[in-house]
Amino acid sequence: MSLPIPALPADRAAMVRACVHYRDGRKVADLPLTAISDVLERPDDGFVWVALHEPDAELLHGVQEEFGLHPLAVEDALKAHQRPKMETYGEVLFLVLHTAQSHDCRIALGETHIFLGPRYLLTVRHGASLPYASARERSEQHPELLRLGGPAFGLYAVLDYAVDNYFPIIEQHRAALEALEKDLFDGDFKRDNVRRLYELKRDLTRLRLSISPLGDMLQHLTRSPTPLIDEAMLPYLRDVFDHVVRVNEAIDTMREMLGAALSVNLALATAQQGEVVKRLAGWAALLAVPTLIASWYGMNFEHMPELGGTYSYFILMGVVALIAGLLFRVLRRARWI
To answer: Is the same domain home to 180 and 288?
Structure first.
C-alpha cells in the first residue's frame, strides 16, 4: 500500500516528479521527501529513486539533508549550466550529462544531474529533457535486474534512455538534409539553403560536444568500476557506451555530409555565376560588331566612298547582320548564349 504524500505548493509539487521506494526489485510505495532518511536508516530496506525537475534552492537543500549530499554537488545541480563530468564525493557518484530535444529541427539542450548512492538514485533535470518516467517503468518491468543492480540498474536505465533520445534527433536532421540536397540541384541559388545547412551543422556540432563526454564517463565506469556498481551491471553500461559510439558515428557522418553539401552549394553557385558571365560576354561580343562599324562611319571624314552610294546604307546593314548572325551561330555552338 502506498504511503501518503503530504500536499506541496503547486509550484513545488511540479518539481518533484517521483519519489519511489523499491525493495527486492519491486515498487513498495511513493514516499514523501521527508521520509527518505527514515528508509535509508533501515538496513536492507531497498533503495529510493527520486526525480526532480528544475528544483528551487529550498527544495534541493531539503533533499540534500535527506540524502546527506555534498554541498559542491548540490551547488552544481542547483545552478546547472555545467559541463558534462563525473565526480566522486565519498560513497556518492555524481554525474552531469547533457540532454537534447528537437522542435522542427531546432535543437534545445538541457542537463541531467545524477546522484548515485549505495541505496538511492537522484536525478535532477534542467532545461530541454524528457522525463525519466519511461526509464522507471522499464526498470520496474525487470524486477530481477532491479533487485540485482539496485540503484545502479536505475542509473543504466536513465543513461540508456537519455542516449536513445539522440537517435530521433539525428533522423530528423538526416531527413532535413535530404530535402535540402534536392533543392541544391534545382539550378537556383537560394541563400536560405546555405543558412539552413549552416544551422544543421552547428546543431550537430553542439550534439557532438554534448554526447562525447558521456562515452568517456562510461569507459571509466566499465574499466574502473566502483562498489556502487555491481559487476553484473557492467555489460549494460557497455551497451550504453555502444549506443554512444553509434550516435557519435552518425553525427560525424552527418557533419561530413553537411560539409560536402556546403561545398557543392558553393561550387554550383560559382558555376552558375560563370554561366551568367559567359552569356553576358557573348551578348557583348554581338553588340561589339555594329558598335565597331557604326564608330567607323561616325568619324565625319569627307572622303568615304560608301557614303555616296545609293544602296550603301542597306548594304552596310546587311553586312552587320551577316557578321552578327555568324558570330551568334559560333557562340551558340559554344554554349555562350
So the answer is: no
Calculate the alpha carbon distances from 10 to 24, 31, 123, 244 in Å: 33, 18, 20, 37
Residues 307 and 188 in one domain: no
Q: Is 128 helix (H, G, I), strand (E, B) or coil?
A: coil
For residue range 257-285, what is the model confidence (pLDDT) as tens digits?
888 877 777 777 777 777 778 888 888 88
Cell numbers representing residue 189 in the block: 541559388
- Please give the grid coordinates belonging to residue 61: 537543500
Q: Do residues 131 and 17 touch, judged by C-beta distance below 8 A?
A: yes
Asked whether the beta carbons of 142 and 75 are under 8 A apart, the reply is no
pTM, full prediction: 0.77
CA dihedral angle for residue 197, residue 199, residue 200, residue 203, rounded to 10 degrees: 160
Element (H, E) at 111: strand 106-117
Distance in angstroms (rounded) separating the CA atoms of residues 18 and 133: 8
User: How far is the C-alpha of 326 from the C-alpha of 307, rounded, in Å?
Assistant: 25
Domain count, the chain: 2
Q: pLDDT (tens digit, 9 = 90+) per residue, 109-144?
A: 899 999 999 999 999 999 888 889 999 999 999 999
CATH number at residue 57: 3.30.460.20
Q: C-alpha cell of 207?
A: 550534439
The DSSP letter of residue 186 is S
